[in-house]
Specification:
- With 117 residues, this protein is an all-alpha fold.
- It has one domain: Methane Monooxygenase Hydroxylase, Chain G, domain 1.
- It contains 4 helices and no strands.
- It has helices spanning 2-25, 33-36, 55-79, 86-116.
- α3 runs antiparallel to α4 (86-116).
- It is flat, with a radius of gyration of 25 Å.
- The model has no long low-confidence stretch (mean pLDDT 78).
């Protein structure tokens, strides 16, 4: 128990020293024009965080996440072709792709309705 306490204390002190050194070395007083400019989403970093933002930007971000998850889930499908029945593999893959495409169409149509308003 004593060894565990000593190891924990040493680990805590070492982490504290590393974080302190990093914070001292990372202090930069030079103001960069790019860091003070608005981000890609159009927010001004100096304004209030409570301002509403564009729904179009939000929907594009959601569609990006859907495609990101889709790619992550589709990559193993190609590698399982050698280990499964071809009919089972093609039916499962097509069903999965259809669900994703229907979700994409639904998201796109909802976005088109929001943009029309």
């Amino acid at each position: 128990m004593l060894v565990l306490s000593i190891i924990s204390a040493v680990t805590f002190i070492l982490a504290l020293v590393v974080m302190t050194i990093a914070s001292i070395l990372s202090k930069k007083t030079i103001s960069d024009r790019e860091k003070n400019s608005p981000y890609e989403c159009g927010f001004d970093p100096k304004d209030s965080a409570r301002l509403p933002f564009s729904l179009r930007f939000f929907l594009i971000a959601v569609i990006f996440l859907i495609f990101d998850v889709e790619i992550t889930l589709l990559l193993p499908v190609a590698s399982t072709l050698n280990y499964t029945n071809f009919f089972s593999w093609i039916s499962t893959s097509l069903l999965f792709l259809m669900i994703l495409l229907i979700g994409l169409y639904y998201e796109w149509s909802q976005g088109a309705l929001e943009w029309a308003e």
